[in-house]
Amino acid sequence: MLKKLIMGAAATATAGTLLLGADAFSYLRTFGGNVREAVKSEISVEFELDRIRNEVDNLMPEIRKHMTIVAEQSVDVKDLDRELAEKEASLVKQKEAILALRSDLDTGKESFTYRAVSYSRSEVESDLAQRFSSYCTAEDCLKRDGQILTAQRDTLRANQKKLDTMLSRKQDLVVKVAQLEARLKTVQAAETINSIEIDDTSLAHVEKMIKEMNRSLDVRESVLETEGQILGRIPVEESAAPAKGDVVGEIDAHFGLKATEAAADTNAI
User: Fold this and answer.
1) Is 60 exceeded by the pLDDT of residue 268?
2) If you write DSSP's letter for every residue of 211-257 in order, what string do you get?
């Protein structure tokens, strides 16, 4: 489907340029927008979710690159910090030597002995001048290195902050993708349930059979009740019918007479 859309777009673009002239670009822009919408409508949600997941995964190379830069800058800062500490220690020693020579010159002597070697006053003054010049140069270098170290630390902090932000945002994206996956699975499950067609013919048939069975049992119970043959029931509904062949009893029962009254009526006659 997508291939057909792309081929159709290319053919339309060529024909439009030939037929529409200056208005072709306007038509093409409109058609291009329609094609984009058509392509988007053909893309499934599952495919789009996979594309988003891939985009999130593709962020890692850039993040790792930034992590490498931060790691290198961190090492550079540590190295420069160590070098500055060594230079500061060296300057302290140089300062001590300069002050020692300066103190010796204050004595007014014309010769000085250091480690069994004798030096004239002019030699000591020359050496002191060289030492002081070297000290000043080293001191200036130390100041510049200190400024460089400060700048590197600022850059490192900024890059670390940027890296932390990138990692945090990437993690947020991972969580959002997981939430999308959960929502998609929920929707898919609901769609699966809704798409199931249940044939209730068999259920209706069984229900009909049960209904017919209940009716049959109702009829049989009714017959038994009519005949007075239901087990366990007291026949309170039955009347004390006279035995067959007892004509007197039948007459008494018919006219509602007791035995003594019936005899009196007979004597009176």
Assistant:
1) no
2) HHHHHHHHHHHHHHHHHT--TT---TT---PPPTT-HHHHHHHHHT-
Write out pLDDT tens, residues 156-183. Answer: 999 999 999 999 999 999 999 999 889 8
Could you tell me the CA-to-CA distances from 169 to 60, 63, 163, 177, 212 in Å, in that order? 12, 11, 10, 12, 68
Q: How many of the other CB atoms lie within 10 Å of CB of 148? A: 14
- Judge if pTM exceeds 0.85: no
CA distance 259 to 248: 9
Question: What does the alpha-carbon distance between residue 48 and residue 183 come to, in Å, rounded to a whole number?
Answer: 14
Specify the amino acid at residue 150.
Answer: T
CA–CA separation, 144 vs 89, rounded Å? 16
Q: What is the pLDDT of residues 39-67, one digit of tens each?
A: 555 678 888 888 888 898 888 998 999 99
